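Supplementary Text 2. Reproducibility record for the structural model of the 468-residue chain.

All settings were left at their defaults, and a single model was retained for analysis rather than an ensemble. We include the record here because the model underlies the residue-level annotations in Supplementary Table 4.
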Amino acid sequence: MRVQVLLTAIIVLAGCEQSPVVTVDGELLVGKYIDEDVATFLGVPFAEPPVGDLRWRAPRSLTSKLERRETTEFAAACMQTMRILDWYRSMAESFGASADYYDDLEVSEDCLYLNVWTPTLEDDARIPVMVWVHGGSNKSGWSYENNYRGHVLAPQGVVVVTVAYRHGAFGFLSHPELESEDAVANFGLWDLVAALQWIQDNISEFGGDPGRVTLFGESSGAEDILALMFSDKASHLFHRAALHSTAGYGLSMPSLEDEQRRSRDLMAALGVTSLEGLRQADAATLLEAYTELAADHYHSPAIDGQLITESTWESMLSGPWPDHAVIIGTNADEYLDRDATAEEYVCPSQSVAAKRTASGGKAWMYFFSRVREDEAGAEIGAYHGAEYPYVFGVHDDYMTTTDWDLDLSTLLQEYWINFATGGDPNGAGIPEWPMFERPDPLVHEFGDEVITIPAIEQEMCASFEASN
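Retained model, structure tokens:
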């Protein structure tokens, strides 16, 4: 019997040795390896669950700790409707695949978790860190969508982190009774700040360099990153930014009163009369009521006087700019409406790049025009989000992916990793990508070839800036 117990113990220990482990804040995190060269830690909490009395409060440091925490599965996504999951499923069907290609999405208020992919657990490795902030209009999206996973980027010498944050009514709302709180609005952005602070405190345990943190994100995620660049509560927590397909990045941002007005409307819809009543409401019921109430509302960061004191546009104009190098760009067919693409995406991006270099900083701009080579690809074009499968190197099986798509993907990864490593996307053996500088601004186009072109729609964008 004693021999059997000893043998069992040896087997258990051997199994443990095959799993990557990291000690963070007194917890032993047990992850898993991918292909033996990438350690992954999934569903790692960076704050207390924002439930009950913590709904609509700044994220609290984790106190509900475990001696040993299994981090081998993704956590639930933050509360949201299935709008993005439905979009993914429709994409699969348009390419002839089944909607079941995408699993059902579990959602919960208990959602403040991040995911880490790393090629080394040496705490003195100090390799660059790339942190992804997903899009979704700040009312949906999740940190582990298929094309956001870091197992292809990490083996190339970076730590990849993807983070969750609260959405919609749970993340971008305020209430008059919150005015004495340490956070009165922008709770989703405060979640990002908490995640970044966690990274500063702990990423060296995963082989990362807290002094080389690059935020990269798409759509509303990019808008959030740009807002945080100008926040004195957040700008010191990261060092570079890659902004994908951002639009309406702060020309007009809601006020605290705007956020409070929507909470009053929500109270009326739910038949409650106080913040306490809202906090006691069932999360699914609250989501359903708010979705109907604010179906057409775009959840931009709000000017709350705490995290954000003025619009991003005003910050860009007044300066000073933080010392962050920037990559920014847009896709050729963001929403299959060429005029809207230029007015809403190209021109704002050009403004950011031009003002960044005019202030003495560094900025590079891209234009992504690659279209998948089949009928479905031609139908959707270089759509909103088409570039990030190339940047992550994770292409859905149902999409037509040619040798050129794979080569283009490898090239984009090299540019982004160079940028994360040294603050400049350029490197040996790849086409030179010039900075975006007026009066003759140049843009790198990633399409059927990789070429440098003059910035497009310069006359329209000059009018855009003059009118704003």
